[in-house]
Structures are given as structure tokens and as C-alpha cells.
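Have a think about this chain, C-alpha cells included, and walk me through the fold.
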Amino acid sequence: MDVRFRILGPWEVRAGGRAVSVPAGKMRVLLAALLVSAGESVSVDLLAARLWPERAPRRERATVHTYVARLRRLLGPFAIQTARDGYQLAVAVDRIDLWAFRDLLRRAAETGDGSEGELKLLRQGLALWRGRPFTGVESVWLDREVVPLLEDEWSAAAERRMDLELRSGQSSAVIPELRDLVRVHPTRESLWARLIDALHRSGRRVEALEAYRQVRAALVDELGIEPGGALQEVHARVLRDGASAAPPVEAGATRQLPHDVAHFTGRAELEQLHRLTAAMGGDERRLTRIVALDGAPGIGKTTLAVHFAHSIAPAYPDLQLYLNLRGYGPGEPVSPSAAVEALLRGLGVRSDLIPPGADERAALLRSTLAGRRVLMLLDNARDAGQVRALLPGGDSLVIVTSRNQLRGLSVRDGAHRVTLGPLRPGEALALLASAYGPDGVAAESGPAAHLVELCAGHPLALAIVAERAQRAGGLTRVVRALTDERARLDVFRDGDGDPHNDLWVALSWSYRALSPDAAGMFRKLGLHPADEVSLAAAAALSGLPVHRAERVLDHLVAAHLVQQRRPGRYELHDLVRWYAREQASRDESEPERVRAVHRLLDWYLHAAVAADSRLLPHRRRDYVAPYLPQATPPRFADVTTAMAWFEEEYDGIRSVIRWAHDNGWSGHSWRIVMSMIAFFERRIPLHDAIELHGWAVAAAAVAGERIGEGYVLNALGCMCYYKGDPAAAGHFQAALTCFQDAGDARGEAMVLGNLGLAYGEQGDHETARWYASRALAYCEKIGYDCGRALNLDNLGVALQAAGDYDAAIDCHVRAQAINRELDQVNGEATNQHHLGRAYLALGRHRQALHAFRRSIGMFRSLGNPRFEAMVRVDVGKSLFLAGHAELARAAWDGAVATLKEFDDPQAREVSDAIATLQAESAGRDARREADTSQV
């Protein structure tokens, strides 16, 4: 498949001419790690370090294998190759724009003669850039180690290209581009030197000197240094040619901007704002340009807006206005009429000249500002209507901050929205060091990193914990408080009602502005135990219809109390969740909280049952009773959509299962696990599945549900059996006791058959055959046809282990007839695998391969690559014994690669078995050659 990657700008992957949607998050980071090392093997350890540079999960290697498997399903099975110590992207480098860019730059450097050929190559390479590399990929590793280096490569190439164009007499053509660049990089002297030179060469000496004045002011004010030698030299050259300095800024101009933060810590959004305003400046029309900064309470909107406004203030020498609209706070928001009056008074308009009507006041404000370049900062806006009356009519820039997304201002007035998210880990640590002191952070680096993680990049939270740490005598004590649920609330609400040092007050202003439905949804979301919740689950939790829940959630997203990173998926920042949970405890009665949780757990249970029913249509689910759905569970069209739902919900369901067990909902906990058996078998590494089943066994025991305990113990035994763990037999025996105590004949028959498999695995063939025969008899006695087919298969396996292959084949053929009659695809896939093994033991390779291929086709239709891989192991064995060593090797390599992706311990066993088989074959060949030579 033709796969192409564009990473020099917004993330884009195409395969076979169509766009491929790589899920945001770790899968994009993994693919990025392979892309930057295209053509080379990247070890699993290095991939893990790039995925989790701050804090790795407990089973990082297993998780890497799982992500690789998912990428292969998206890009094609051959796009990523398994190497000895990791993985390698098997894509030609000319299919990746990064490597095409570097190749063009390399060829230009080899030319290096300043010719039109070098200039053409540089232009081609630079044309591949569409913005910041890897836009759409959130990664600490990329932000720290990759993107800055790529941007340096681009800068060097861009500067070389502009030098060549200046040399060739095209100075006027590069001036607009250089102006844009110096707006984005206001202290990069090399860019300013080229801009001044280009202006000078174009006969615009006054502008050249003004440019020098601007850069010198920026360097002196921000860095405390004078311009370097190259910049001073180009300045002297302009002076020698008789240019005069630009006129000074008009005296007496209004300057209302609040003071800038002394130790502002870097934010990626600052550069985005500079790029945005630079792009606006390229439009020659005299328009009012609007930038709306929105974000959650305490996320740092005002701090960034003020800092940004100061950085661009020299471009607006006429007027710099500021007004706090008090959209969120203890009192009422400033009305549009009162806001216009405040601005007019600040501009020196006498009270008797200010008309009473709002429209007349707005018109007077526009007239007063006409013909002047105005920078206006409107802080803490409630909605678009509050802002609209204040907009100037000329060549001006308006910066607005709000907790609301101000969508109307964007749609109607053309505002450019910039959403401010949490700080990245490096930025958060820098803010903590600035507030607490770099020496203190260095002395307690471990607790500092932990605080950054606990505050999840929230600036106000970091500022609060820094202040608390100074009073408490260290960061370690604050970490202890934040890991204690009761104490951590006090950390964030102990600010004497000041929103600048009390996070709870800041959040309360947004919470109070919500409608009753939105406030109710917000409180109930605090009860959800997982980091992410789907629309359907949120609807169930709130008790609202889905269409109404979606509107309410959209209001919460607009208010930045809830984040929506993907369609239909919602998240709360950890700190916001703590606040929501506290409001639920305060504003919701205990019966209502219980009903909400009950609705949520019922929804997860019956959604899992619906998906599992698509994977295993004929499975009995008596264990679900007496739990009935309170909301309509989702419907799944086929196996693919059911598996996709499990994949998307799995992390959240794990949290729900554990939380339910720990908080008195054990009946739901074990039932949800039982409703995911097919998914565990087909997608989840065995150690993870075994851990979850361990929780479920404990939950069923706590719930006092003996039959449920038997079901989960039996499922746990199956997972251990797949792993080759001898503990499987013990779990099956415990399950048998549970079913016997409860008088459940079906459950007893199910476990007896599994005991046969377990004892057969241990080499106790007589006991295995006895259990399998007894299970079959039970099923025939109670008329359980599905159980008859299953236990005929089990009996066949036991007979195989005992060496009675003909009798085993008879059992498998009888099971095949029942499975086909019942349309039991899953049972028949397993039975065909075992039938093929019996034929293989008798040396009947053609019949064995026929059965194996049928089994593979069925497992593939069921979306079960793990079991398909196990069948392929036996396909390889059959081909090898039939004399087709190369074909066998191909089958084995593919099977082992799949098993490794699932972190299946059988992968090593299969590899060892293959090696033994090949060694025995080599020994036989050697002995045969020796015998021939003796003859």
C-alpha cells in the first residue's frame, strides 16, 4: 500500500490515496518516533522513553506492542516491521515530507555556490513546510527534542534562501516575509539584520532605521543587552547613506495596559498569537482585528494576554486601552453601555458629552477612535454581546479573554479564537520554579515533578501550591496534602475568597453561571471514576436523553469546565473533577447520587453485554439477571464495530470495574468483567486480563453471589490456561465447588470440560478424559446442545493428549456437525483447530491444513488475531513436516510477531518449540548424510 506522511505542519497520513485517521495521543507519538528514525530500527525501550518521557506505565513494553499492532491495522501489515530489538518503519523516505525536505537541503548545500540552482532547491524544500512540525501531536519528547531542531533547520535554510534572493536583487520581495518573521521572533538579530538590509536596498531608509530602533528597544527592554556586531554594522551602513531616524511616538498617548508579569514563563500559545497577528498584518485593508483568548478558570488567560499586549504595543503607538468586563465574578458583569462609558472617560471625553443611549455611546466611541491605531485589551468577557459594542472601526487590534468560547464573536465578527490549555510539563515546572524559587525546586526535584503531575499543568493550581509550600516549609509537605483527598481540598480553597489564590472561588464563578441542567450534569460528571466519558455514558449518568445531554455538554465545553478532544468524548481536568465531586456531595442528595451511579453502572454493563453479544451471539448470559437496563444500550452492526467500542472504552471500563468493587457496587463489577470475555481473549494481554479477573473474583465473593463467583473463577481459569499457568486447574476446581454448592448443572458441565483441558495440559491424560466424558454426559442429560459440541471438542483434545487420534477425530467431527447446526462460529473455529492437530499427529497433512485454514478464516471473521496466530503456528509445523521449510518459517514468523504484540507468554514457547523442531530436523539430515558417506 502506498503510504505517505506529512508532518511539517498539521499531521496528515494517507494510504492508497485516502486519509488515515491515526487516533490522537500515544499512537501518534509512536508513529512520530518511527518517522523521525525512518529506515532505522528503533528499540522498544527507546520507543517507550519517547512515549512516556515523564512517567512510564507499569507495563510499558506490553503497551508499546499493543500500539504497534493497532498502527499495523491502520497502515497495513507491512508498514511496520519487527526488528531484533524493536520496530522499523518500512516506508521509503521520499514518502515522508521531513526526509524529502532534508534531501533537498542536502542537495542545496552540496551545490553551495549561490547559483539559481541552489536557490531553486531551497525554495522547493521550504515549500514543504505548512506550519509547526507535528501539529496535532501532543508530546513532551517532540516539543523538547525534535521540533526545536527542525525549526532551526528551517530557519537556517530560510535565511540562506533570503540571502541569495537579496544578492540577486529581489530585496522588495522578501520584506513582507521578514516582517512576519520578526513579529514571531522579535529578538532574533539575524532576521532583523536582513530586514534592515532589505529595506535599505529597496530605498526605504527611514523604515530601515525604524526597524533598528524597534529591535534595539526589544533587546534592551527584554534581555538587557545592546544589538550585536552584525546588527550594528548594518545600522551604521544605513546611517552612512544619509538616512535619518524615524519620528518619535506621539507624546501624551493613552497607555492603560496593566503591568506585565516580571517572570513570565514561556507558553507555546504566545508564538501562535504572534504568528496570528503577523498574518493579520499582511492584510492591507484597515480593519479591526480580533483575537479571542478562551480557557478554563485560572488557566492563565489574562497573564498571557497582558504579556502579549505589551510585546506588540510598539506597533500601536496611538492608544493602548484596557477594561475588565467582570464577566465572571462576585457581582454582575459590566453592561455594554457602562463599558463604553468607561472607555470614553478614559479617553478624556467629558461626562456631559456622553449620550445616555447604548447605541449612541458606541457610535461616539468609534468616532473618538477613528483614524488611530488602537490596541484594546478586554479582559474577562461574559459573552460576545458584551464585547461587540466596544469594537473600534479602524486599523486596530482587540484582544479579548473569556471563560466562554465566544463562538458568536468568531462567527459574526471574524474573531480568531485561541484556546488556552494546561501548561506542558516543562512549562509547568518553569512556572513552579518561578513562583517557589529555582533553588527550592532543584533541591526537591522529585516532589516538584510530582506536583506538576498532580496539578496537571494548571497555572493557578501551581501558583497556589508554590505559595502553600513556602508557608508549609517545603514541596514535600504539599505533595502529602494533595495525595490525601480531604487535605487536598483545603489546599485549593484556602485563599480568603480571592480568586487569584483560591481555585475553588475561581471555579465557583463559572459554576454559578451555568443553567440548572448544565450544573446538574457538571456535578454528576464529578461522580464518574474514569478520565474520559462518552456522550451516551454521560446521558445515562445525568438521566437526560442523549440529544439533550449533548446540548448540555456543549454548554460545559463552551464554558471550559469540560474538555472535548474527540467527537462524543468528554473529559474533566483532575482539579475540576475534584471540585465537581465536592459540589455533588453538597448540592445532590445521597439518594440522587446513588441513582446516578446506578444508572451509569447499568449502562456500562448492558453496553458491554450488547457488544459481547455481537462477538459471541450464542453465549448464555444468565449471570446478568436481575440487572435491567435503565437506558437503551448501544447497538452494534457487526463484530468490527463491537470490537471498536471495546477498544475505545477499555481504559474507562477498567476504572469503572475497580471503582465499583471498591465502593459497594460489587455485583456490577464482576458482571461487567464477565461481559468482556471475548474481548479479553481477542485483544488484551493475558496478564491484564488475569488482573481484572482477580478483581472480579473478589467482587463476586463480596457480593455473596456464589454462581457469579463460579463464573468468574472459571473465566480466570481459562485465562491462566491460555497462559500455560498450572494454577488454571485450581481455579476450575474452585469454580466447580461454587456451581455444585448452588446446584447449577450448566455451570458444573462447563467447568468439568475445562478441567479436562487443564489436566490434559499437565499430562494427566486419564483424568483429563474422565472429566471431559463426565462433562459431555452432563450436557446430554440436560439437553445442552452447545455444551455437547464444546465438550465433544474437549474430549477430542483429551484423547489426542492420550495418543488416541482416531477417536479424537471422531469427537471433533461430531462436534463439527452440532456447531454447524447451531451456527456456532466461535466454537467451530476452535474445534477445527483441534481437528487439524489430530490429522497432523497422524501425518495427514493435507487434511490438517484444510482444517487449519477453515479455523483461520473463522477466527479472522471474529476479529481474533491471537487465536489465529496459534493456528498459524500449527500451519507452520504441518508445512515443515511436509518438507516446506521456507513456507513454514513465514507462517511461524508472522504468528510469533502477533503473539509478541499481545505480550502473550506463548510467544517464547512457540519460538523455543520451533527452534527444537528445526534442530531435530538438522540432526536427522546430518545423520542421513553420515550414513550416505559410509555407504
Observations:
- The longest helix spans residues 906-934.
- The chain is about 65% helix and 5% strand.
- Residues 746 and 774 are 12 Å apart (CA to CA).
- The radius of gyration is 34 Å.
